[in-house]
Amino acid sequence: MSGVDADDDSTPNPENWPSNVTYTNNLLFPPGITPADVLASKSAPLAVHATVPTPLDSVEIQRLKAGAGMGEYGLVAKRDCPKGSCLGYYTGEVVERGTRTNSKYLMEFGGFDIDAEEQGGLFRFVNDPKGTDQRANVRFETRVDQAGCPVVVILAVACIPKGECIWVKYGESYWANESTTG
């Protein structure tokens, strides 16, 4: 996946994919925003990410049975994922920071955001462990792919056994905003 590649229409939607969301494996750059703009907005150089993950092989969508998102969709490991492994990319539409304040699927991306509310990939379903006895087992990190395009990779910070939920800390600013917007 390159950050600017066109979607491959032959890729089927994952099982349990919501019908109101367009599935994409790519970052969608609108006219006026380029990968170079994202790279220029970063204060430090980015590490190159050498491997191309296959998220459909590593995770699946399931309903959560506990925590702040109980009953909502989440991701579960389909196989054992070693610490340090890349599970996939966070994908969606690249937008100007602050233009999508009501979306619950925003990821900071340099001076921009990735919004996966209407168009996104599997990792839009990664949840925070708040309200559970679990700890975050992945982190998001902005890197560049082999084509030089910025991407957000999902990296395992611990060994994740097959069947375990995928968790990431959203951060205090997410929960502060969530408490004011409902």
Q: Beta-strand percentage? A: 25-35%
Count helical runs.
Answer: 3
Low-confidence sequence ranges: 1-9
Q: Decide which structural class fits the backbone.
A: alpha+beta
Q: What would CATH call the architecture? A: Beta Complex
State the share of residues found in helices, binned by percent. 10-25%
Total individual domains: 1
**Radius of gyration, Cα only, in angstroms?**
16 Å
Tell me what you see in this structure.
It is a single chain. This protein has helices spanning 35-41, 55-58, 172-181, and strands at 22-23, 27-28, 59-63, 73-77, 86-90, 92-96, 106-109, 112-120, 138-144, 150-156. The protein is α+β, with helices and mostly antiparallel strands. Strand 7 (106-109) and strand 8 (112-120) form a beta hairpin. The termini are far apart. It is built from three helices and ten strands; from the N terminus they run E-E-H-H-E-E-E-E-E-E-E-E-H. The protein is globular. The strands form three sheets. Strands 1, 2, 6, 7 and 8 form a five-stranded mixed beta sheet that branches. It has a single domain, classed as SET domain (Beta-clip-like), CATH 2.170.270.10.
List keywords for this structure.
single chain; 182 residues; alpha+beta; Beta-clip-like; three-stranded antiparallel sheet; globular; disordered N terminus
